């Protein structure tokens, strides 16, 4: 297949484990739907922050790679995720992507999930914090300050499922009924079946990353969120292994006989509490008692729901960033999707993708540029220069387009 990726001549590769060059090549996927609006604005804002912070000494060399609908236009009708895109995301190690469409029911499987699985990006890290002035349904949105660690490669997102009525589902149901003695499938003839794998290794590495994050960032607690009362051998396993990692690898000791436990942060000397919460109760607690939660470690589906719910508490998914991280690669992306009704209107909030890029700058160690992005975001919102999603809930706001919001940020760096 012909190559469509143009490698920027002046840039250098980021090699995991080696110092980040001053001129890194960063692959980006524009994304479907509103990707066309937010991705160029993100690039413009990040370039301005890097230029302002380092006066030309550092510069990102952006390299477009293709996935999703744009890829099918460039490579051919069935080329949703070309092999050379995977290869580039691996070769250049750090990347950023816009959202991609996944049809409901039939059609292609999620390209977003496929990328996470292929690159083994097992941590989905989504910080949720409040920016002063953002409209929120809560009286005290500033009390919400959490970082979600969502397991990103397992659970029902693994895509092991069979459609109702298919030959595959009949075989699976037959096996379950005849060989495993299963009697609890209510309508065996008309069920679709999905499998939920949750492993010890997958849980260990995710919870380890969450605990290490709490240590490195002096956070006060890690809450394991699960539905282990019902799904004992998957969600329940996640909880049990989570506590085991805390005890065996971080020296956590039970509180009042357990299962909650705590350990002293070796870096700050402060206590870190490790606790758990059942997912449904957790969703009401984060609204009513957000200050009691800090770092969250959870399974894939729970993490998906919790991400959007928590984002809403601090103003919505227009301002909800994220990162997908493995031991070798990182691919940054917003929490929201393609919001198709707004595609191409230059209307939506580019904040989520810009803040995802801000996480990327910190990942590179470019703290000064990252700080400028935060300062500019705070200043634009503080001046009530906001996109439609905030403007509709704010008194006296000046509603800006997506691109004008980017420019408003740049003017405030
Ligand atoms: N990582 C990814 O690539 C993801 C992809 N998706 C995919 O995206 C598609 C659409 O999903 P959908 O369920 O509609 O969810 P979306 O997140 O795309 O949009 C839902 C609503 O959220 C608000 N919203 C989303 N993005 C922004 C933004 N940047 N600024 C302001 N408001 C925003 C809008 O609210 P309002 O209408 O109130 O203005 C929008 O209608 C699906 O195919 C889904 O699979 C979904 C999530 C993640
Ligand atoms: O892949 C998708 O289409 C949806 C993914 C999603 O909702 C998420 O990662 O938060
Ligand atoms: Mg989601």
TrEMBL record:
User: What EC number(s) are associated with this protein in UniProt?
Assistant: 1.1.1.42
- Using the record's annotations, give every residue carrying the modification N6-succinyllysine: 97
Cross-referenced InterPro entries:
IsoCit/isopropylmalate_DH_CS, Isocitrate_DH_NADP_dimer_prok, IsoPropMal-DH-like_dom
Q: What chemistry does it catalyse, as a reaction equation?
A: D-threo-isocitrate + NADP(+) = 2-oxoglutarate + CO2 + NADPH
Query: Which positions in this protein are listed as binding Mg(2+)?
Result: 304
Pfam families cross-referenced by the UniProt entry = Iso_dh
Q: Where does D-threo-isocitrate bind?
A: 110, 112, 116, 126, 150
Where in this chain does the record put each Isopropylmalate dehydrogenase-like domain?
A: 25-409
Q: Which residues form a coiled coil?
A: none
| Site positions for Critical for catalysis | 157, 227
Give residues annotated as binding NADP(+).
Answer: 101, 336-342, 349, 388, 392
Q: How does it assemble?
A: Homodimer.
| GO process terms (BP) | glyoxylate cycle; tricarboxylic acid cycle
* Gene Ontology molecular function terms on file: isocitrate dehydrogenase (NADP+) activity; magnesium ion binding; NAD binding
What name appears for this protein in its UniProt entry? Isocitrate dehydrogenase [NADP]
Q: Which family does it belong to?
A: Belongs to the isocitrate and isopropylmalate dehydrogenases family.
Cofactor binding mode and count: Binds 1 Mg(2+) or Mn(2+) ion per subunit.
Q: Which residues carry this modification: Phosphoserine?
A: 110
Keyword Magnesium found:
yes
Q: Which cofactor does it need?
A: Mn(2+); Mg(2+)
Mark the residues carrying the PTM N6-acetyllysine: 139
* Record key words, sorted: Glyoxylate bypass, Magnesium, Manganese, Metal-binding, NADP, Oxidoreductase, Tricarboxylic acid cycle
- What organism is recorded for this protein? Azonexus fungiphilus
The record's section on NCBIfam families has: PRK07006.1, prok_nadp_idh
């Amino acid at each position: 297949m012909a190559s469509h990726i143009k490698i920027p001549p002046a840039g250098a590769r980021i090699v995991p484990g080696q110092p980040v060059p001053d001129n890194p090549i960063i692959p980006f996927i524009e994304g479907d739907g509103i990707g066309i609006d937010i991705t160029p604005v993100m690039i413009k804002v990040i370039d301005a922050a890097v230029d302002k912070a380092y006066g030309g000494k550092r510069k990102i060399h952006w390299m477009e790679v293709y996935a999703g609908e744009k890829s099918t236009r460039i490579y051919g009708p069935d080329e949703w995720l070309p092999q050379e895109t995977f290869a580039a995301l691996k070769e250049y190690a750090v990347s950023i992507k816009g959202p991609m469409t996944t049809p409901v029911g039939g059609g292609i499987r999620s390209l977003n999930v496929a990328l996470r699985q292929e690159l083994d990006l097992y941590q989905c890290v989504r910080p949720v914090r409040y920016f002063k002035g953002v409209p929120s349904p809560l009286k005290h949105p500033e009390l919400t300050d959490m970082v979600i660690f969502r397991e990103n490669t397992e659970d029902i997102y693994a895509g092991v499922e069979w459609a109702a009525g298919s030959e595959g589902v009949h075989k699976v149901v037959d096996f379950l009924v005849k060989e495993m003695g299963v009697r609890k499938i209510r309508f065996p003839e008309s069920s679709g079946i999905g499998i939920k794998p949750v492993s010890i290794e997958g849980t260990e590495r995710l919870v380890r990353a969450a605990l290490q994050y709490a240590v490195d960032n002096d956070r006060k607690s890690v809450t394991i969120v699960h539905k282990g009362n019902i799904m004992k051998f998957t969600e329940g396993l996640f909880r049990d292994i989570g506590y085991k990692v805390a005890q065996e690898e971080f020296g956590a000791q039970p509180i009042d006989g357990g299962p909650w436990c705590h350990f002293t942060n070796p870096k700050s000397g402060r206590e870190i509490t490790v606790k758990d919460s059942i997912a449904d109760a957790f969703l009401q607690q984060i609204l009513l008692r957000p200050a009691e939660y800090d770092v969250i470690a959870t399974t894939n589906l729970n993490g998906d729901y919790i991400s959007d719910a928590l984002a809403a508490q601090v103003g919505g998914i227009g301002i909800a960033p994220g990162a997908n991280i493995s031991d070798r690669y990182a691919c940054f992306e917003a929490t929201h999707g393609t919001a198709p009704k707004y595609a191409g209107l230059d209307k939506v909030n580019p904040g989520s993708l810009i803040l995802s890029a801000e996480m990327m700058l910190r990942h590179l160690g470019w703290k000064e540029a990252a700080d400028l992005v935060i300062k500019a975001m705070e200043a634009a919102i503080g001046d009530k220069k906001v996109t439609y999603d905030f403007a509709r809930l704010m008194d006296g706001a000046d509603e800006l387009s997506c691109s004008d919001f980017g420019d408003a940020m740049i003017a405030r760096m």
